[in-house]
Amino acid sequence: MTLLSGRQRGRALARLTTAAIAAALVGTTAGTAVADDGPASDPTALRTAMKQVAERGTALDGLRAHGPKSAAPGTFAPYLPLNAITETGDLLLYTPNGDGGLRKPFPVKPKGGWKDVDAIMQVDFDRDENLDGTYTRTSDGALRYTGYNADTDLGRGWDTYDVLLSPGDLGGAKEADVLARDGSGTLWLFLAKGDGSLSARKKVGTGWGQFTQIAGQHDLSGDGRADIVARDKAGVLWLYKGTGDYKRPFTARTKIGGGWNQFDRILSTGDLDIDEKGRADLVARDKAGALWLYKGTGNASAPFTAKVKIGDSGWNAYRLFS
Fold first, then answer.
1. Phi and psi for 122 in degrees, rounded to 5?
2. Distance, CA of 100 to CA of 319 (rounded, Å)
3. CA-CA distances (angstroms) from residue 308 to 41, 121, 305?
4. What is the second-level CATH architecture of the domain 11-321?
5. In whole angstroms, what is the distance from residue 50 CA to residue 53 CA?
6. What local confidence, expressed as pLDDT, does residue 12 receive?
7. Phi and psi of 163, rounded to 5°?
8. Which residue has the higher pLDDT, 24 or 224?
């Protein structure tokens, strides 16, 4: 599998990126962050990996030094890791390289210990653009939140949902909330609290079974509210702008464009290219296993630029990709 860098920003910026990331990873072996051994059900290994991911994110903050420093907290999209689980149960975390692409992954131990995980959601709760917590669902339907200072078991029964997604704050508080779609196509909203616990579900609407992919991480339209995109069975991608009101979290959909059936996975980790405006981007994997980046524009009428290839074939080797 080959990682391709994004468009070059200049030698000075590249040196800044290298130096910043190196400083954040002092003490690791050859720049590779590996979590301590432990069973998959034990949050210790995951918490260690989260801290290392956050260190990388802090290092990347320097790339926004020329951006709007007066921006309010939460203006910028977070830069969260891309999660990949192999068929043998290895969990790999890919983080932005500061140049529109992804760094080589680091594994989360124990090796092969993530076979029972079938959904991962990572969140920025305090709007500092860095990873604060991770939701994991296992094949028995149990959902757990792992934070730096709190671990919350959210019970079983979550296998009722075929889509789990945390696109950011949908209810007007600072925490990133959770969307879930059940087998009947009904979409539900769970408001999050600071310890990762979730409110009783609130019905968003029916008819969401028409979509084969739903994705989002922060604002796509430029108004500061979390949005989502959804692809229908005909391959048309639609934008649902967030309202910030949990009673009616989205406006009526607007069409982005067709042709999206060329991809078997569409997702967002936030601001992957780490631009000075902090816009949320979209990642798509095609059926040949290549990875593409759609940079966010912050414009609802045309939310993405033309796609840029950031990974050669081989990305379809993962059974879970989020």
1. -115, 145
2. 24
3. 37, 25, 9
4. 6 Propeller (2.120)
5. 5
6. 30
7. -135, 130
8. 224
Per-residue tokens: 109: 């131990």
Between CA 82 and CA 123 the distance in angstroms is 12
Contacts of 182 (CB under 8 A, 6+ apart): 160, 161, 162, 188
CB 226 within 8 A of CB 86: no
The ranges assigned to domains in the chain are 11-321
- Coil/strand/helix, residue 142: coil
Decide: 136 and 143 in contact? Cβ < 8 Å: yes
The dihedral region occupied by 220, where left means phi > 0, alpha psi between -120 and 50, and beta the remainder, is alpha
Residue type at 234 in one-letter notation: A
Measure the CA–CA gap between 168 and 227, rounded to whole angstroms. 8
Q: Which residue has the higher pLDDT, 53 or 254?
A: 254
- Helices vs. strands in the chain: H and E counts, helices first: 2, 20
The alpha carbon of 218 is separated from its chain's Cα centroid by a whole number of angstroms, namely 9
From the CB of residue 214, how many other CB atoms can be counted at a distance below 10 Å? 21
Least confident span in 81-95, 236-250, 270-284: 270-284
Task: Name residues whose C-beta falls within 8 Å of residue 115's C-beta, 6 or more positions apart in sequence.
Answer: 40, 88, 89
Helix axes 11-24, 43-60, angle to 10 degrees: 150
* 240/212 Cα distance (integer angstroms): 15
**Structure confidence by residue, pLDDT tens digits, 51-67:** 877 776 666 655 554 44
The three-class DSSP label of residue 257 is strand
Q: Distance between CA 81 and CA 270 in Å, rounded?
A: 9
The token duo for 312 is 């050669």
**pTM score, whole prediction:** 0.84
**Beta bridge partner(s), residue 84:** 92, 321
What are 108's strand-pairing partners?
Answer: 91
Q: DSSP labels for 221-253?
A: SSSSS--EEEEETTS-EEEE-B-S-TTS-B---
Q: Are 241 and 303 in contact (CB under 8 A)?
A: no
